[in-house]
Amino acid sequence: MATPRRHFRPRRLVLACLAGCSTTGAFAQAQLAPVTITGRVTPTINAAGWGEVPLAKLPLQAGVFTAERLLDRGATRLSDLTNFDPAVSDAYNAEGYWDQLTVRGYVIDNRFNYRRDGLPINAETSIPLDNKAQVEVLKGISGMQAGTSAPGGLVNLVVKRPLDTPLRRAAVDWREKSTLTGAVDLSDRFGAERAFGVRLNAAAAHLDPLVRDSRGSRQMLAVAGDWRLGAGTLLEAEVERSHRSQPSQAAFSMWGDRVPAPVDPRRNLNDQRWSLPVVLDGDTASLRWRQTLSADWGFTAHAATQRLRSDDRIAFPFGCSAADGTYYPDRYCPDGSFDLYDFRSENERRRTDALDLSLTGRGQVGSWAHALTLGVLNSRVKNRFQRQAFNYVGTVGPGDETPADPTLTDENTQRDEHTSEVYARDAIAIDARWTAWLGVRHTRLHRQSVRTDGSRPTDYRQTFTTPFVALSYAYVPDQLVYASWGRGMESSVAPNRARYTNAGEASTQTSRQAELGLKGSTASLEWSAALFDVVKHIAADIGSCDDPGTCTYQPDGTQRHLGGEGSISWRTGAWTWLAGAQWLRARREGSANVGVNGNMPYNVPARTLKLQAEHRLAAVPGLVIEGSGRYTSRRYVDPLNSASIPGYAVLDVAARQAVRFGGQTLTWRAGIDNLTDKRAWRESPFQFLHVYLYPLRPRTAWLGVQVDL
């Protein structure tokens, strides 16, 4: 078991902040101005890799969600991004577990598709947002930015850094049922010429959501500092420690051959007396040195380390053994009963280390202006696990209890990875209107794995290159059209087991994307649209796979996502209107299993729509009322498209107001999610060869109060 730790108490944290922060009276803005799609706001996106070029001028599609915007909508976790962007949807998002996202219909990999200030991290943990300035979602192929990654997109977390002006902020948030969070955000500069900066973020929460049997707690402490050594030298360091302990919510499933009516979303199948919480601890630290070499050139060295520790535990429903002898391997019995397993994988340890060295600059070659980046990235991953329990404890129905069986009966897999990458990017301004965008990343990969008992070792090396090219044309100022093409890569290995004819052999699954896009803005209107074609090559087990030598892990066709997305923002008077939509034609093609060819991938909606309207009341200064709605079309629940969950629409409302008094600013925010308490199946992930269903979250009220001193 984990060594006991001292943790913050929300009430103590809030009271200490209110007492300590009141000693200074300077008021400051947040680190970044709120970035909503209104007016002329043009955020930058670090995940794209093109430096300080505004998103509005880049040949790609992305979402940038600042801390203020997330607060205004009551967002508390990464999965809440599904409420903002039509290209982002759920991918097995359970209360009490880590978040998983789908972008453009592809599930992004928590091991390889996440970055923290541009460096790779593992997202198989709970990621706190309290010390994040913004969350960026790059949509589509990210081979140029990440090397190995799933083709849906890339998520980058931007850490809050010290500000130029003092900040003293305390906040208290409440959410139904009785979740209470206290947080502080403090920033200041000191020393000669204010060369030293420090920013402290701390949060503590008592977790008690509407989902039953899921009480828990979380804490987070983060410190970021910088040292301006001279006019051209900046040294930045930061460290973060987080802890979350909470029972997770087990998923529902089909009842025999039918999808049941949506259940009470407060119900939790993980309700055995012996159920233990999922415990997620994370320590992350980074050091970055920025050096100006000349008026046009600069050098950056950036290193980071992440260490995760997890206790993954749940009373896990999986399949069903019916009384008549029928076994349902991928769903529950027709009467709703299911087989229950005692799953425990404790003391999981994951470590990621990365070092990035880059050189950026500008130059002129003839009449062409170049914005060039050259760099190398070296990263290591070391995952260590113990034996695990996955033990059948009975076939149960609602309210039935079973005995626990925590016996460690199954081996786990240790994993090591070393990756070396060399990359180059060049934005070539051909003239005032035409720009060519060229990027390439060359990756050398070495992976090893072995079971915890020393069996089934694998060891392989791969080398591949992932290019990106685009051409943009600004036909009028602040309006452009572009075309792009990129390549991505994923790597896997055939298990070293006797049933495989190619045991231990590596396999590479390539992906590619072509995209046409349009962007533009005026004083009151901003829009963006794109057509994309993403093709991912699939690898699968072919053969009976029942006896030795009967199975081959090999290429098995493709998954093609052809679609379009668009967003528009219009501000007129006291009103702000935002709308976004995605249409997707996703199909499985060329598989040896002819039953899936032509089918739509599971848990992927063909149509999504997000709407938002804000109104600033002139009669009440500072008061903003907001209404937002989202629509998702039906989703299939399995590869054979044998059943689907219906589409649904949800309405949320919120309000906020900033009030100035006595040199201080108080901001309150309140809202109701799922105002009509709509009952529906929110998502239908197909995990571990099993159909799962998660209900739409119930109507939930929330309230937050923030004080800037």
Describe the structure in your own words.
There is one protein chain. The radius of gyration is 25 Å and the shape is globular. The strands form seven sheets. The protein has a 22-stranded antiparallel β-barrel. A five-stranded mixed beta sheet has the order 1-7-8-5-6. It contains three helices and 39 strands. The chain is mainly beta and 709 residues long.
Provide key terms for this protein.
56% strand; 22-stranded antiparallel barrel; 709 residues; globular; mainly beta; single chain; five-stranded mixed beta sheet; disordered N terminus; 3 helices
Radius of gyration: 25 Å
Number of helices: 3
Q: Which secondary-structure class do the elements indicate?
A: mainly beta
Mean pLDDT: 92
Helical content, roughly?
A: under 10%
Distance between the termini: 42 Å
Please tally the β strands and state the result. 39
Query: Which regions are unreliable across 5 or more consecutive residues at pLDDT < 50?
Result: 1-40
Binned strand content: over 45%
Which overall shape is indicated by the principal axes computed on the Cα atoms?
globular
Largest sheet: 22 strands, antiparallel, barrel
Write the layout of secondary structure elements.
Blueprint: H1 10-21, E1 62-66, H2 67-72, E2 88-90, E3 101-103, E4 106-107, E5 114-116, E6 119-120, E7 132-139, H3 143-146, E8 153-159, E9 167-175, E10 179-190, E11 196-207, E12 216-230, E13 233-246, E14 278-292, E15 297-317, E16 320-321, E17 327-328, E18 338-365, E19 368-384, E20 389-396, E21 413-429, E22 434-451, E23 458-476, E24 479-493, E25 506-521, E26 525-543, E27 551-572, E28 575-589, E29 607-616, E30 623-632, E31 635-636, E32 644-645, E33 648-661, E34 664-673, E35 681-683, E36 686-687, E37 690-691, E38 694-695, E39 700-708
Parallel strand pairs: 5-8
Antiparallel strand pairs: 1-7, 2-3, 3-4, 5-6, 7-8, 9-10, 9-39, 10-11, 11-12, 12-13, 13-14, 14-15, 15-18, 16-17, 18-19, 18-20, 19-21, 21-22, 22-23, 23-24, 24-25, 25-26, 26-27, 27-28, 28-29, 29-30, 30-33, 31-32, 33-34, 34-39, 35-38, 36-37
